[in-house]
TrEMBL record:
InterPro entries: Aminotrans_V_dom, PyrdxlP-dep_Trfase, PyrdxlP-dep_Trfase_major, PyrdxlP-dep_Trfase_small. This is Selenocysteine lyase/cysteine desulfurase. Signal peptide: none annotated. Keywords: Lyase, Pyridoxal phosphate. Pfam families: Aminotran_5. Residues 22-371 form the Aminotransferase class V domain. GO terms for molecular function: lyase activity. The lineage of its organism: Bacteria, Pseudomonadati, Pseudomonadota, Alphaproteobacteria, Hyphomicrobiales. The keyword Ribonucleoprotein does not apply. Transmembrane segments: none annotated. It comes from Enterovirga rhinocerotis. The keyword Lyase applies.
């Protein structure tokens, strides 16, 4: 049951969740029947008609419009990428940073965000890791670390390792006040937490699509602010150009870049995944991200209630204002939990400080109760 939408109907899209207790959507989500069908339709078009490429490309633009609507930005601000890491690397290399400049990151944040910036240390850019104070990151986390050479802040919106939900609106305001670039890794929030790009005001915001956006690995989205003109792509292809040569002959005097986010796109698209994304957006829009979030918070409250009753500590924040709706790391006592949960047909991920339970739009209250009962059975024995 859910107060927010018909979870039973959603579960019929994901039959695998009746065969196992799937609590690992922060790792990847199972494929919905409608998303699989969209992939099969795409492959059939290629197989039967040798690919109606202009039709496919028109659909790319339609999906771009829908992604923009999801993030509350203009379609011209959206580039398709391969994954979050590519988006973070495009961002890090597009910023006009010089030797001696510094970038602030959060200690312990996702390595794929950190490495994109650590790679810049080869050209003399300094990376400073700022510790969290308490359970969140907001403007005060960074205020003292900013000096005259600070040029950018980059962090995850939601952390994969403990389910923090950082105050990206406040950090975005700080960046605008202090003239800093702002880069957000939204991998764990897209499709689960409503995102308002206009309110966040990030220079770049990137995400892969294989978690909350429900498509197979290999597609990412990258939002780029259009009013920041000094952002240049590290790579160039015909698709990056304002006027690609009609005769397909490259010339050095024809390298003016597109003004929109398309200047960061390289060559052909991941067309199968973009077709899959059209179907997953049907599913997500049909429910509404706000309802997906509200349902996940309810499941989280229920899980925290079980943990309190069992005396199990939650590693990340408890407070709804500071925690993500769908990611909970449990500090279970003793060893052997991974093997035990696998033997009980429960899918979770091991995390730094415990085991991570993460919800998808198909999880139900009874999933949470079943999980708690499975944990309880072993707690007495360890
Ligand atoms: C916050 C965050 N960033 C990035 C990634 C992964 O990056 P990519 O999409 O490049 O695989 C993950 C999880 O896999 C993540 O949780």
């Amino acid at each position: 049951m859910s107060r927010h939408y018909d979870v039973e109907a959603v579960r019929r899209e994901f039959p695998v969740v009746e065969r196992m207790l799937y609590l690992d959507s922060a790792h990847q989500t199972p494929l919905a029947a409608s998303v699989r069908d969209a992939l099969l339709r795409f492959y059939s078009e290629g197989h039967d008609f040798a690919g109606p490429k202009p039709v496919w490309l028109a659909r790319v633009d339609e999906v771009r419009r829908r992604v923009a609507r999801l993030l509350n930005c203009a379609p011209s601000q959206i580039a398709f990428t391969k994954n979050t890491s590519e988006g973070m690397n495009i961002a890090a290399n597009a910023l006009p940073l010089e030797a001696g400049d510094n970038v602030l990151l959060v200690e312990g944040d996702h390595p794929n965000n950190a490495y994109a910036f650590l790679n810049l240390t080869r050209r003399g850019v300094e990376v400073r890791f700022v510790p969290l104070r308490g359970e969140t990151a907001d403007a005060s986390t960074f205020a003292d670390a900013i000096d005259g050479r600070t040029r950018a802040i980059s962090l995850s919106h939601v952390t994969f390792h403990a389910g923090h939900r950082f105050d990206v609106e406040a950090i975005g305001r700080l960046c605008r006040e202090r003239g800093l670039f702002f880069v957000v890794d939204a991998m764990q929030s897209t499709g689960v937490v409503p995102l308002d790009a206009a309110a966040i005001g990030a220079t770049f915001l990137g995400s892969g699509c294989h978690k909350g956006l429900l498509v197979p690995q290999g597609l990412g989205i990258l939002l780029c602010r259009e009013d920041v003109r000094e952002l240049n792509p590290a790579y160039m292809a015909m698709s990056s150009l304002a006027s690609p040569p009609a005769d397909y002959i490259a010339r050095a005097d024809n390298m003016a870049l597109r003004a929109d986010a398309g200047r960061f796109e390289i060559g052909n698209f991941n067309l199968p995944d973009i077709h899959a994304l059209a179907a997953s957006l049907d599913l997500i829009e049909g429910i509404g991200v706000a309802s997906i979030e509200a349902h996940a918070y309810d499941l989280g409250d229920r899980l925290i209630g079980h943990c309190d009753e069992m005396g199990v500590r939650l590693v990340g924040p408890r407070d709804r204002a500071q925690r993500a709706p769908h990611i909970y790391v449990l500090d279970l006592p003793g060893e052997g939990w991974i093997d035990y949960l696998a033997s009980e047909n429960v899918r979770i991920s091991p995390e730094r400080d415990g085991i991570r339970v993460s919800f998808g739009l198909f999880n139900s209250e009874s999933d949470v109760d079943r999980f708690a009962a499975i944990v309880k059975r072993r707690l007495g024995a360890v």
